[in-house]
Amino acid sequence: MDDTILVTGSTGNVGSQVVKQLSSFNGKVRAAVQSKNRAQDIKNTGAELVEMNFNNTETVNAVFKGVQKLFLLTPFVPNMVEISENLVEQARKANVKYIVKQSAFGSEGQGITMNRLHREVEQIIESSGINYTFLRPMSFMQNYLGLADSIRTQGTFSFPLGDSKTSLVDTRDIAAAAVQALTNSDEHKNKAYNITGPAAISNYEIADILSNIAEKKVTYVDVSVNDTRNVMKNAGMQEWGVDALMELFEFQKAGNASVISPDVERVVGRKPISFTQFATDYAESFRTS
After folding, report:
1. What is the dihedral of CA 244, 246, 250, 253, to 10 degrees?
2. Phi and psi at residue 194, in whole multiples of 5°?
3. What is the pLDDT of residue 43?
4. Once rounded to an integer, what is the mean pLDDT over residues 66-90?
5. Percent of the chain having pLDDT more than 90?
6. What residues contact residue 37 under an 8 Å CB cut-off, 6+ apart?
7. What is the mean pLDDT of the segment spanning 73-78?
8. Three-state secondary structure of the chain
9. What is the structure's pLDDT at 29?
10. Interval 233-252: pLDDT, tens
11. Residue 289: is its pLDDT beyond 80?
12. Where are the domains of the chain?
């Protein structure tokens, strides 16, 4: 019998790519969404769309029926561990055989809030008896798409990262690694992979790349942590989320995010996507129309 793979977080940067890249999979792909009306990007993939609320046990129970494998991606929220623990328990009850979890780079060392919470979820999976693969990605190249308006209209973008370098990863590579783990599970059983890009680059270097792609001068503005914190608060972010992101920025600024891992090439069989290729692929997002 062909496997049924359940993908949670299926409308996000990574989850949507997992669903799309599984479109040629011989089994069944079930994409859990909060609302089918908000799943335009994955409606044409052939996946079965099912509505699920992470905090509603009844909907969680329903989506696991007949599932053999799970791609576990949950929102980064204060009760992330509780949500994940419930999903893993429902997976165990449904006799799910394999879990691929999107974790975070550095989670094995714990430390900052993001890494600590992801490691707690990894430990829950390890204790469940279900076979697993943990993917621990670096920060996403696609995060820069969230700055595209500023880049287009003002020719600037900002972070509190100084001249530190990060081995940013394209979410398409995270998804490709997830698909390999989901469809070739025996090869990746009970392993953890650090998912990074091919090079560690600074935001000054990124500004140069975007200048070439956008066909105009793009400038990186190094801002203070306090200014960044105030911008996030004024945008309505919760204090908990702001504090966690400030920790992440400090982690990166200290040089902890410049590690380059061979795991994408090892798992996927090709070199990871470079930032230049990412920017080229999404060029229209950065150019003034």
Report:
1. 120
2. -90, 120
3. 83
4. 95
5. 87
6. none
7. 93
8. CCCEEEECCCCCCCHHHHHHHCCCCCCEEEEEECCHHHCHHHHHHCCEEEECCCCCHHHHHHHCCCCCEEEECCCCCCCHHHHHHHHHHHHHHCCCCEEEEECCCCHHHCCCHHHHHHHHHHHHHHHHCCEEEEEEECCEHHHHHHHHHHHHHHCEEEECCCCCEECCECHHHHHHHHHHHHHCHHHHCCEEEEECCCCCEEHHHHHHHHHHHHCCCCEEEECCHHHHHHHHHHCCCCHHHHHHHHHHHHHHHHHHCCCCCCHHHHHHCCCCCCHHHHHHHCHHHHCCC
9. 95
10. 999 999 999 999 999 999 99
11. no
12. 4-138+169-195, 142-166+198-257+273-286
For 52, list phi and psi in degrees, rounded to 5. Answer: -145, 135
Q: What percent of the chain stands above pLDDT 70?
A: 99
Residue 152 pLDDT exceeds 60:
yes
- Predicted pLDDT at 1: 45
Measured distance CA(177)–CA(282) in Å, rounded: 21
Any idea which residue has 């990412």 for tokens? Answer: 278
Which CATH number among 3.60.15.10, 3.40.50.720, 3.40.50.10190, 3.50.50.60 corresponds to the domain 4-138+169-195?
3.40.50.720
Q: Above 50 in pLDDT, residue 200?
A: yes
Which CATH number fits the domain 142-166+198-257+273-286, given the four candidates 3.30.70.100, 3.40.50.720, 3.90.25.10, 1.10.730.10?
3.90.25.10
Structural tokens at position 133? 């693969």
Mean pLDDT of the chain: 94
Q: Residues in the chain, how many?
A: 289
Residue 110 in this model has a pLDDT that exceeds 70 = no
Buried b / exposed e along 251-272 (16+ C-beta atoms within 10 A): bbbeebbbebbebbeebbeeeb
